[in-house]
Amino acid sequence: MDCGTTLVKYVLFIFNTIVSIIGIVAICYGVIVLNSVNAVEIDGTVHFPPQAIVPVGLITIGSIVVLISFCGCCGAIRENVTETMCYAVFMFILLILQSVILVLLWTNKEKISDAMGQVIESAWERESREAGVFEAIQKSLKCCGVNGVVDYGAILKLPPPSCCENDSCITANFYGGCRRKFIDLVTGSTDNAKYFSLGLIAVELIGFIFACCLANNIRNYKRRNIY
């Protein structure tokens, strides 16, 4: 096999090894963040607050990246056209999906904010039926009620210690509402995700091009050997 093809093969292998490491780091970071999210156990069932979506998303994306990169490594090092093309196809699909998600994130910021606000309001409505459901959100976000401590007054309940700094409630140290804090958290995470996705798309595009080049070179090399 010519030097160019060999170079592409090892570049693709090293590239996917690095991407796999990044995917593993994303999974580990997601697990750490998920462990830091306060969960509440109600009737034997563990409930995670809405902000657990972010680390779960990281773990999911990291797992997909590791699997695809592993396929790319195998295809490159074994000089297998089928595996390399499968990797290229997966990369292409991932590129399309990420591009669509990126466009949606960029063009639907207000809708996303409204949807996140609705998540908090739904959790608050559930709190009236199952006491303690909202507790995990308040502990994780350091917030109180949907719009503030007044929400507890509206339902004739005393605010829990999680509504206050150091679990010591006096008028001056009540946290703000969870709706605003959750929207700010998701908006910040979304903004970071946009730029991260742009970088990831560029990296994946490079991987896709290298995979196509390698598969084509291997196919041509084998075809020439037949003759």
Automatic annotation (TrEMBL):
CC annotations in GO: plasma membrane
Gene3D superfamilies documented for this protein: Tetraspanin
Membrane topology type: Multi-pass membrane protein
Transmembrane segments: 7-32, 52-77, 84-106, 195-215
InterPro entries: Tetraspanin/Peripherin (IPR018499), Tetraspanin_animals (IPR000301), Tetraspanin_EC2_sf (IPR008952)
CDD domains: tetraspanin_LEL (cd03127)
Covalent S-S links between cysteines: C143-C178, C144-C164
Keyword Iron applies: no
Cellular compartment(s): Membrane
Swiss-Prot/TrEMBL keywords: Disulfide bond, Membrane, Transmembrane, Transmembrane helix
Pfam family membership, one: Tetraspanin
Lineage: superkingdom: Eukaryota
PANTHER family: IP01817P-RELATED (PTHR19282:SF521), TETRASPANIN (PTHR19282)
Family: Belongs to the tetraspanin (TM4SF) family.
Protein name from the UniProt record: Tetraspanin
